[in-house]
Amino acid sequence: MAFLKSHRLPPTPQNYTLAYIALHDRGSPIALAIKAITDEGFRIKQDEVDTIFERHGGLAIFGLQERANISLATQLRHQTLKISELTSSAADATGAFARELSEEADAFSGDNANALSIMTKMVEHSLQAQSRLTAAVQEVKSLREELEAARNDAHRDELTGLANRRAIDALLVELADKGEARVIGLCDIDNFKSVNDRYGHSVGDRVIKLVAKTLEETCAPHFVGRWGGEEFIVIMRSRDFKGGAKLLDKARFELAEKEFKLRETDEPMGLLSFSGGVALATGGREANAATLKAADEALYRAKSSGRNCVICTEEF
């Protein structure tokens, strides 16, 4: 509460949450983002709090993630019911066709005219049933594609197209449960706040997308995700954490080689860089949290050492 009062922030659940994180989890992305603003004695403003909260996934604390889960589940239930309806409709059509064939067979008298009439009806009903079944199959295919797209959207970051926190957490749990060693690298764009302040959020978004693309291309085929805000994560199925640090360093070099210009004035923005921290996890799920913390601490040391570098740490 003293923190909120000193920064003239109202004691809302969101502000209280950020203040708690800033004071009690100093190595977290949210705490580091707050520290970057307040380090030199500046007061953090409400709009800056809102931006940090949004960019670092804080909205999930208040249930937006749960609502996303509910939305996906609702779509799944809707599509399951639709498939059930289509299957039932196709079964009814097939049953009716079988009854009609049976009735026509009972009425068959053997003369050619009657046989031709029966055969014509059989062909007509067969074509109608086929048309209905084809339409049902196509709709089931469309529903399956919609469900797959919804599932993919739920695991993708909207701005960059990279994996989001949901997908990142799922992969880390999967690797831990399989007992696979994993190198975890965290990257944070250097001086990103000054980019937003000077050029605006639209330019900031372009910078984020450029860094995302550079990491994705340089670190392929390894997993790259957006950790939150201007932070990214790279997960490698390997024990070679020093090799992981070298790979991130290569991506850092590739980014520095790119010439980023403002669209409006064609003015070059100068050096774009990121700092990185790398750690190795070899244990179960508990090792994920310890390794993420270690990578984050290494990232903080990289920032404190002058930025634009990658530091690796010990195994967990």
UniProtKB/TrEMBL annotation:
NCBIfam families: GGDEF
InterPro entries recorded: Diguanylate_Cyclase (IPR050469), GGDEF_dom (IPR000160), Nucleotide_cyclase (IPR029787), Rev_trsase/Diguanyl_cyclase (IPR043128)
Enzyme class, UniProt record, top EC level: transferase
Catalytic activity: 2 GTP = 3',3'-c-di-GMP + 2 diphosphate
Organism whose genome encodes this protein: Qipengyuania mesophila
Organism domain of life: Bacteria
Protein name: diguanylate cyclase
CDD domains, A to Z: GGDEF
EC number(s) given by UniProt: 2.7.7.65
One Pfam family matching this protein: GGDEF
Coiled coil: 126-160
Gene3D superfamilies (alphabetical): 3.30.70.270
Domain called GGDEF: residue spans: 180-315
Keyword annotations from UniProtKB, A to Z: Coiled coil
